[in-house]
Specification:
MCP_dom_sf, mainly alpha, Mito/Peroxisomal_Carrier
Length: about 325
């Protein structure tokens, strides 16, 4: 990938925009295909991990496997409930991936030095910075997304109250009016730590892709799918406990006993939630619901990379940019 002369060009180039749009469209396509798995993941995180601190919300639900959870939800709440919250999730995901891919490729273009290929360390650093930018800009959308996704769920704990949002904009206005603007950034600290997830994912993906394409070899869609799946599986397993904590804080019904606010208060909440889970369920309790999480995120990420690569390659070809797809 050529530098095209300067950071401003790298930031505003058509090539960077193509990567961002392709990444956003790839994520939307993949999430739509595997959305019921995301629904199961949310419930398993809540019932077996996330909401345990709220007097074990749905531990009364005996099932803890993805197929059974999906069957129960469809039977008790209707088939369409498997797609509850689809629009806010897709909207958040589209914006989030656009920001991430745009920032990642802009930074990569700006940091390109000579003909040498990117190294894993540089990819990791770029991924972390891109993740931080993404978290700061899109966390409010994910907070609203979490609220809307849990709306209408049949809670088995009386301490949890139902919310009544009419849509994305109504949720934003109610949260700001009733809980304050700062609530829109609930879970930001674990989210900032979790930038390691996509950073590690992209580092592994880029490294494996470079190796697979060494010597000018063409990389098939099947290989892209496998590489994307492996990269996501490693990143997700490494950061899963913090993802569960993030979901609890975004849901907004966790009442903290921690004193103090700001960063120290947030750290205290995170540590309390992690230690509470270990105390009640042992170290393996930190990974309750991982099966559903891996099934959903790995398949979604793998398909996303395939769609992303195809859209970007076709677009570059139409634009007459005769180059190999790199990001």
């Amino acid at each position: 990938m050529s530098d095209n002369g300067g950071s401003a060009v790298g930031l505003l180039s058509y090539e960077t925009l193509v990567h961002a749009v392709a990444g956003a469209m790839g994520s939307v396509t993949a999430m739509t295909v595997f959305f019921p798995l995301d629904t199961a993941k949310s419930r398993l995180q809540g019932e077996l991990g996330g909401f345990i601190i709220l007097d074990r919300v749905d531990e009364k639900r005996k099932s803890n496997s993805t197929p059974v959870i999906l069957a129960e939800i469809a039977k008790e709440e209707g088939f369409l409930s498997l797609y509850r919250g689809w629009f806010p999730v897709i909207s958040s995901l589209c914006c989030s991936n656009f920001v991430y891919f745009y920032t990642f490729n802009s930074l990569k273009k700006m940091m390109a030095s000579g003909p040498g290929q990117s190294r894993p360390g540089k990819d990791l650093l770029i991924g972390i910075v891109s993740g931080v930018v993404n978290v700061i800009l899109t966390t409010p959308m994910w907070v609203v997304n979490t609220r809307l996704k849990m709306q209408g769920v049949k809670f088995r704990n009386e301490d949890l109250h139902q919310t009544h949002y009419k849509g994305i904009f109504d949720a934003f206005s109610q949260i700001i009016a009733n809980e304050g603007v700062g609530t829109l950034w609930n879970g930001t600290l674990p989210s900032l730590v979790l930038v390691l997830n996509p950073a590690v994912q992209f580092m592994i993906y880029e490294a494996m892709k470079r190796k697979a394409g060494r010597g000018g070899r063409k990389i098939s869609s099947a290989k892209i799918f496998l590489i994307g799946a492996i990269a996501k599986a490693i990143a997700t397993t490494a950061t899963y406990p913090l993802q569960t904590v993030q979901a609890i804080l975004r849901f907004g019904q966790y009442k903290s006993d921690a004193k103090g606010g700001g960063v120290m208060g947030s750290l205290s909440n995170i540590l309390f939630l992690l230690m509470d889970r270990i105390k009640k369920h042992g170290a393996l309790g930190l990974y309750k619901g991982l099966e559903a999480k891996l099934l959903q995120t790995v398949l979604t990420a793998a398909l996303m990379f395939v769609v992303y690569e195809k859209i970007a390659a076709v677009t570059f070809r139409i634009m007459g940019m005769n180059k190999k797809l790199k990001h």
